[in-house]
Design goal:
234 residues
Amino acid sequence: MSDLTEEEQLEALKRWWKENGKWVITALVVGVGGYLGWTTYQDQQEAKAANGSALYSELLDTLQVQSGQTLSDDARAEAAELVSQLKAEHAGSAYGVNAALIQAGQAVENGELDTAESELRWVLDQQPSDETRHLAQVRLARVIAAQGQLDDALATLKEGNPSEVMKAEYAEVRGDILSQQGDTAGAREAYQSALESLDMQQQNRRRLLQMKLDNLQPATAKESEGAGAEENAS
């Protein structure tokens, strides 16, 4: 186009615009519209996250009580409403899932095992992170076992594939359930597995597991230990 006169260049530009102008405008409109749509979406997501954070903070504040005191009925009702709102408006977020976990814990404290089970199953239905899923499965197994459904509780544990961090927790709960079923050998194996999975620094947990193991010693072994102690005393 550099060999053309200024007038010819202007004419060529007019023809090009006549042929392609509408596509250029369309592309600009779509591009601007897409940008505005994306920024609007981002703003909505940020506003939603801020709302979820505010509701969750309000829930935690509602559940706070002074040492030695219990949660009032009004506070309990308010907390239940906040949990319902978080689950409805933020189901796929950590706010909704954690609120349901809190509600399950409150239900266990109040002896409302059906409610606790429902909340924990809701958490699992949200397909949360592996860490949260493992935590919910372990708690659900305990709740189901407390309802006397020991086989179902064991089946719940089998559905999980615990991370290294949760292996000890899974094994301990399995040991508790097997102990309730009278499977002493299975319970001992589970407790031993839990001990081996625990970090050496977790001394309190290790002592508790060792106590559970000691309580599962065969009667003959306990009698022998008792007899030996008597002989030493004499």
